[in-house]
Design goal:
The protein has 299 residues and is α/β, with parallel strands linked by helices. It is built from 6 helices and 9 strands. It folds into 2 domains: 231 residues, 3-Layer(aba) Sandwich (Rossmann fold); 50 residues, no CATH class. 33% of the residues lie in helices and 17% in strands. The protein has a 7-stranded mixed β-sheet with strand order 1-4-5-7-6-8-9, with helices on both faces. It has a two-stranded antiparallel ribbon with strand order 2-3. α1 crosses α3, α1 packs antiparallel against α5 and α3 crosses α4. It starts with a helix and ends in a 34-residue tail after the last helix.
Length: 299
């Protein structure tokens, strides 16, 4: 089922992006309404919706992000802003903006990326927590859908707008929302904004650079999950192969492969350090470890 989900989303994303070439253009942004407290942000009109809740939290207070999951301790006092955005019918994007106290804000915004297929705020919140601790305002989204885990893509079936949200729209809308909230809450204007993401968050970072380069002043694209369609298809192929009888290698055989490949390719860069610097120049052939007779952990 997971393999089918991977293929479904990979293909749908490609069709959604290539067929329309569409980007989200925001409606006219409501005039900024300056507020004098965190609580006063509740109900604030936004380009794509409105603020659902605004809650002041003290340092150490528990931040509950998902029902049934343990919360995170607040790293410092901040205003937790929660909003639901609906840029188009069929879209519903949960966004959180965390605002340090006015006296501790460094004037900057950090956008936090997700992992896998997203589905919740757990991973972005870890990045946001570190950002708030250093004085940044921070923003993250659930990418426009709810799933059982970050490897669940069943939500994409017959939901093209949710696929578009995942592909590019959710984080763009989140960035615009964060800037609206910042403008309402702080007296000083936003000085700079950055985006940080790894894995799918790295893909999101590159999407910002391609589609919305004005959203952030700089991006950090760690281990970007690209090219997405080819990579997701490979995941599905691997999952199918591993699910067949005998397809899943034991830890002992994985160790055998690691040791043999390092023995042949580790020193190619002139340093024996347990790392193959450039796998493209490694010519290790795992077929040499194939069983000559009865299978064993070493063959």
């Amino acid at each position: 089922m997971r393999a089918v989900s991977f293929l479904l989303l990979a293909g749908t994303m490609s069709l959604a992006a290539c067929a329309t070439g569409e980007t989200a253009s925001a409606p006219a942004v409501p005039a900024v309404q300056k507020v004098d407290s965190c609580e006063a942000l509740a109900g604030l009109g936004l380009a794509y919706g409105k603020v659902d809740a605004a809650t002041p939290l003290s340092s150490g207070a528990v931040v509950n992000l998902q029902a049934g999951q343990p919360g995170l301790p607040a790293p410092a006092a901040f205003c937790r802003v929660q909003a639901t955005l609906t840029p188009v019918p069929g879209s519903s994007i949960k966004v959180e903006v965390w605002l340090p106290e006015r006296s501790g804000w460094n004037g900057k915004l950090m956008g936090a990326g997700n992992g896998g297929f997203g589905a919740n705020m757990l991973l972005p919140s870890l990045l946001m927590r570190g950002a708030v601790q250093k004085g940044y305002a921070a923003v993250g989204t659930d990418m426009g859908h709810v799933g059982e885990s970050d490897v669940d893509a069943s939500w994409a079936l017959n939901a093209p707008e949710k696929v578009r949200d995942y592909g590019w729209r959710a984080n763009h809308a989140g960035a615009e929302t964060a800037k609206e909230v910042i403008a309402a809450y702080y007296e000083a204007p936003l000085a700079a904004s950055y985006f940080h993401g790894c894995s799918d968050g790295g893909r999101q970072a590159l999407t910002f650079a391609q589609r919305y380069p004005a959203d952030y002043d700089a991006i950090v694209a760690g281990a970007p999950a690209i090219p997405w369609t080819r990579m997701a298809s490979a995941f599905a192929t691997n999952a199918i192969a591993a699910g067949k009888p005998g397809g899943d290698l034991s830890p002992a055989k994985l160790k055998l492969l690691q040791t043999a490949s390092l023995g042949e390719c580790d020193a190619l860069d002139g340093v024996t350090d347990g790392v193959i610097e450039d796998p493209r120049v490694c010519r290790f052939d795992p077929a040499k470890l194939a069983c000559r007779g009865r299978a064993a952990p070493t063959a």
